[in-house]
């Protein structure tokens, strides 16, 4: 068995026996033990009582975190003409049409969010098998297929987070950095959990939100009291 380092051992000891904490206590614990040499991301994992193989149990959505993510989000936009210029003016990192499609087909994906105008979807549709598994496929339900590309780019750059349930019924998201003030992380976490709660699908049966855990990139996770996790 691999020998645990001092930092890992100390973190595990600090987390031992602690579960179902308040959001505030969980954030304080995670921040206190985020001791890596870089600014760790604070990550949230929400276990849901859904089977996403059924269309009426799919959970997806978008939420604007009140304090941003702390991450520099690279945005690609499929657009032509004035809309392409609008996207560039709003701060998009990559703008294109067929040329961008060919770049992606060639294996280069150097962006975190993909936005498209509706007329570009026949081109973007050819990339479904590449972008879909990476949760990068533009979708009108989360505002990434739109004529208002400027607002979409600004939202993506400003801390908007998309979420989509995975096969195992889990939603993952980065909700800030360990360097954030505790109050800002708490606010972000509550906003995210609230958004997932409101996205409950019609086909969900029984307990919808089973478990919520928070961790830092290199640290252990701790569970949050689900009944007191939203901002409501």
Topology of helices and strands:
Elements: H1 6-15, H2 23-32, E1 41-48, E2 60-64, E3 75-78, H3 81-90, E4 94-96, H4 98-105, E5 113-116, H5 121-124, H6 128-131, H7 149-157, E6 160-164, E7 170-177, H8 182-198, E8 209-216, E9 221-224
Parallel strand pairs: 3-4, 3-5
Antiparallel strand pairs: 1-7, 1-8, 2-6, 8-9
Structure write-up:
The chain is of the alpha/beta class. It has two domains: 19-69 and 160-228, 2-Layer Sandwich (Ribulose 1,5 Bisphosphate Carboxylase/Oxygenase), CATH 3.30.190; 75-158, Rossmann fold. The protein is built from eight helices and nine strands. It has helices at 6-15, 23-32, 81-90, 98-105, 121-124, 128-131, 149-157, 182-198; strands at residues 41-48, 60-64, 75-78, 94-96, 113-116, 160-164, 170-177, 209-216, 221-224. The strands form three sheets. It has a four-stranded antiparallel β-sheet with strand order 7-1-8-9. A three-stranded parallel β-sheet has the order 4-3-5, with helices on both faces. Helix 2 packs across helix 8 (182-198) and helix 3 (81-90) packs parallel to helix 7 (149-157). The radius of gyration is 19 Å and the shape is globular. The chain starts with 5 loop residues before the first helix and ends in an 8-residue tail after the last strand. It comes from Pseudooceanicola lipolyticus. Binds directly to 23S rRNA. The L1 stalk is quite mobile in the ribosome, and is involved in E site tRNA release.
């Amino acid at each position: 068995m691999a020998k645990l380092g001092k930092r890992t051992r100390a973190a595990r000891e600090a987390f031992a026996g602690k579960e179902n904490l308040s959001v505030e206590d969980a954030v304080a614990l995670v921040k206190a033990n985020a001791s890596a040499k870089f600014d760790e991301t604070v990550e949230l994992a929400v276990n849901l009582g859904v089977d996403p193989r059924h269309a009426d149990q799919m959970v997806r959505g978008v939420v604007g975190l009140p304090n941003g993510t702390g991450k520099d989000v690279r945005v690609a936009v499929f657009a032509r003409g004035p809309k392409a210029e609008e996207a560039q003016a709003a701060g998009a990192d990559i703008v294109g049409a067929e040329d961008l499609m060919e770049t992606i087909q060639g294996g280069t994906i150097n962006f975190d969010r993909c936005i498209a105008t509706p007329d570009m979807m026949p081109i973007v549709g050819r990339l479904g098998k590449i972008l879909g598994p990476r949760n990068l496929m533009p979708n009108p339900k989360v505002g990434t297929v739109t004529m208002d590309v400027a607002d979409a780019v600004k939202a993506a750059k400003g801390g908007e987070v998309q979420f989509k349930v995975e096969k195992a019924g889990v939603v993952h998201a980065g909700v800030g950095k360990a360097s954030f003030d505790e109050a800002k992380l708490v606010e972000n976490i509550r906003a995210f959990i609230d958004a997932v709660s409101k996205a409950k699908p019609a086909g969900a049966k029984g307990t919808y939100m089973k478990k919520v855990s928070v961790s830092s990139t290199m640290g252990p996770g701790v569970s949050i009291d689900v009944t007191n996790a939203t901002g409501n």
